[in-house]
Amino acid sequence: MRAVIADGAGGPEILSVGEVPTPEPGAGEVLVRVAAAGLNRADLLQRQGFYPPPPGASETIGMECSGTIEELGDGAEGWSVGDQVTCLLAGGGYAESVAVPIGQVMPVPDGVDLVTAAALPEVAATVWSNLIMVAGMSEGDSLLVHGGAGGIGSFAIQFATARGIRVLTTGGTPAKLEFCRELGADAAIDYHEQDFVEEVKALTEGRGVDVVLDNMGAKYLARNISVLADGGRLVVIGMQGGAKAELDIASLLQKRRSVTATALRSRPVAGKSEICRGVVEDVWPLVGRGRIRPIVETVMPLDDVRAAHELMEAGSHTGKILLTP
Ligand SMILES: NC(=O)c1ccc[n+]([C@@H]2O[C@H](COP(=O)([O-])OP(=O)(O)OC[C@H]3O[C@@H](n4cnc5c(N)ncnc54)[C@H](OP(=O)(O)O)[C@@H]3O)[C@@H](O)[C@H]2O)c1
């Protein structure tokens, strides 16, 4: 089959499309004919050699896809050849076919076409698992989402507002801030021009927010903690601003605040399967009712994988970038 091959580690120029053996579905897996694969920031890190796939996962980049089931492995019950699905992957998405454990296979939500469905698994699983499982958010809570116009951010704004959570967000350009407000954010803060700590304090009458969903890591650690309300939770999911920072434990202890960091990819199959069940139950109905819409910047052919990575690196996109084999 055709798949993206990385020649060592480095910039987008190391990527090309070539022939590799078609995977065989193992026990409890299905083989999916890929309709589209979603790009993720972690794909850029994997390409650079900083984020190797977990043991046993495909070496091919790609952590989510949509497609059609073409073969069933032993004991792969509950699915049939020909079913249209969307999948959370440990790797292997930038290809014509991928083997997927059945727990990570989900139906396509109502009202979403098969290609667009590739924009959903990673953002839905990341946002649902962090806001609901990890941070225990519920109606009436408040949330600060950094990078509200990105893939994760645009989904988090929609999901949280649909659950009755008040959302404040940050973004890098006036157009992106406007987009965040259109998605339902109560306020959007320009991270180049404004101090988000001052703005969040002013917008919450000094109380702070219950949860921060953070993509920046070290660079924002102290400031994120300072905008948490009493009992607030900082959930770090990215390290775009570095991995190492000093933590003032007193800033947590006095106000019973906590800091958690999670990665979806390294969770075992059972953990990913639990999250996929939660997504199908809690998130897909909101997508089916049009309360959450998949946000796609562009769909590009697999052969344009280098340009797709350059586009994500440039950071001018809004929502998801998809590749079709
Ligand atoms: N831990 C996990 O399981 C997991 C899973 C998926 C993704 N992630 C992480 O989540 C993050 C977002 O992923 P994505 O797919 O949504 O990528 P993306 O679409 O490229 O979004 C990146 C976002 O970062 C924002 N940003 C850049 N500099 C910023 C700053 N100084 N302050 C605040 N925001 C800033 C951008 O905002 P502007 O565009 O407005 O500049 C953009 O919204 C990445 O760090 C990724 O690694 C983690």
TrEMBL record:
<feature type="domain" description="Enoyl reductase (ER)">
    <location>
        <begin position="10"/>
        <end position="323"/>
    </location>
</feature>
<dbReference type="InterPro" id="IPR020843">
    <property type="entry name" value="ER"/>
</dbReference>
<dbReference type="Pfam" id="PF00107">
    <property type="entry name" value="ADH_zinc_N"/>
</dbReference>
<dbReference type="InterPro" id="IPR014189">
    <property type="entry name" value="Quinone_OxRdtase_PIG3"/>
</dbReference>
<dbReference type="GO" id="GO:0016651">
    <property type="term" value="F:oxidoreductase activity, acting on NAD(P)H"/>
</dbReference>
<protein>
    <submittedName>
        <fullName>NAD(P)H-quinone oxidoreductase</fullName>
    </submittedName>
</protein>
<dbReference type="InterPro" id="IPR013149">
    <property type="entry name" value="ADH-like_C"/>
</dbReference>
<keyword id="KW-0521">NADP</keyword>
<dbReference type="InterPro" id="IPR011032">
    <property type="entry name" value="GroES-like_sf"/>
</dbReference>
<keyword id="KW-0560">Oxidoreductase</keyword>
<dbReference type="GO" id="GO:0070402">
    <property type="term" value="F:NADPH binding"/>
</dbReference>
<dbReference type="InterPro" id="IPR013154">
    <property type="entry name" value="ADH-like_N"/>
</dbReference>
<dbReference type="Pfam" id="PF08240">
    <property type="entry name" value="ADH_N"/>
</dbReference>
<dbReference type="InterPro" id="IPR036291">
    <property type="entry name" value="NAD(P)-bd_dom_sf"/>
</dbReference>
